[in-house]
Amino acid sequence: MGSMELEHQTMETFLRWAADIGISDSIDSSRFRDSCLGHSLSVADFPLAGGRGLGAARELKKGELVLKVPRNALMTTESMVAKDQKLSDAVHLHRSLSSTQILSVCLLYEMSKGKKSFWYPYLVHLPRDYDLLATFGEFEKQALQVEDAVWVTEKATAKCQSEWKEAVTLMKELDLKPKFQSFQAWLWASATISSRTLHIPWDSAGCLCPVGDLFNYDAPGDDSNYSEGPESAIQTSSPQPISTANECRNNEEEAGPVVETQSERLTDGGFEEDANAYCLYARRNYQLGEQVLLCYGTYTNLELLEHYGFMLEENSNDRVFIPLETSLYSLASSWPKDSLYIHQDGKPSFALVSTLRLWLIPQSQRDKSVMRLVYAGSQISAKNEILVMKWMSEICGSVLRDLPTSVSEDTLLLHNIDKLQDPELPLEQKETEAFGSEMRAFLDVNRLWDVIGFSGKDVEFSRRTNRMMSKWRLSVQWRLSYKRALADCISYCNEKMNNLLRTRDRIRDL
């Protein structure tokens, strides 16, 4: 049996198992016993939009229920502990561990059971590898180039290592095999929890939601047409994004638990007490065959990489931060530091422009009239605006010059990585010799240079090499997006500055 045929067969088995435990895309779940899908949704491949996902099996209306997963079908610490006394006793003795650590251990414990696990039909469909920042090796981490991104990656890895060391004792008490106690296994489990859990009100670690985690991500936008993987939000007059367990954990750490009122109703999805199930809804109208998407919330591309292992080519929520003078922050008290950024399209944020306008005005001239203009987001004067645009253009240029590679070099590198990954594109030796230093370094690290250079890539890469290459590609893709935003900001500022200068010259001529 071929791998595609086997995958199709195991998917059918999984969907039958899901139907047996009450998961359904129909209000009347008794109508479909061979599969939990078919009425509203179907599994499909979307190669240019997230890979495997869920498509509309018919026309769907905005706000319509498309999937219902009963509480007993959710994979939670509560549900796993209830089915295993040994696990329950062990977990009870380790209450100092966080809820996320406990859920990670429970997941590894169920994985160790193999086919004996109640969750086996679901577990076999979980990804074997993830591309979250915590899984990046030294080469991929350094390939990010930008100091802030490297620091975030190091922090994510250190956190994962620390949590693993704290949980090892519990895993030993459960007699997990060494491979399930390893740091690599922990990386996999914590990445699964980070990228796939949905928020539930009774456990901050969240839940794994069979079938529900097949939805791909839809980034929030200015209207109801959003776009790409799962979780819950509050329904108001317009759709709001679904909250992941990861997002809720972060929110609780920063601002305390969020309490929902009885009048609030979830749009993309959420656990509903009256239905005793996780209910997921269409966030907009969908045509037959169109991919049905859910929104995780508002994330920058670096945050998407950190928590979910992917990024978006176009992300209206992405932010690029530039180095600012310390004295500038004291003037930005009306705006949080994280509001001083450049949008992905190169336009500086309202707060950044307003703060720079004030900073570049001599202190003796900062009277009430000037302050009113600043807080209203208005231009103070043509001279001041020119100084603001010039300053931003120069800073962005300085940042770009200090980075090891340029936009054009990264664009070419991405192209070469794609050629290296594509088995349909044979490489001649002269082509590999023309690769840049970073590509050669990757080939050297993985001992692939001689193989590719002399065999023309007739050999398949190992699974490990392919995973490293995917992570490396994400690093290059992220830093390229970062640099393009800076380059676009330079263009934006120069154009605005030139327009101001031309206007000033015309006024002088009059």
UniProtKB/TrEMBL annotation:
The keyword Transferase applies. Residues 233-248 have a biased composition (Polar residues). Residues 39-297 form the SET domain. The keyword Methyltransferase applies. It comes from the Eukaryota. Keywords: Methyltransferase, S-adenosyl-L-methionine, Transferase. Residues 220-264 are annotated as: Disordered. Signal peptide: none annotated. Transmembrane segments: none annotated. CDD domains: SET_LSMT. This is Protein SET DOMAIN GROUP 40 isoform X2. The gene is LOC104770018.
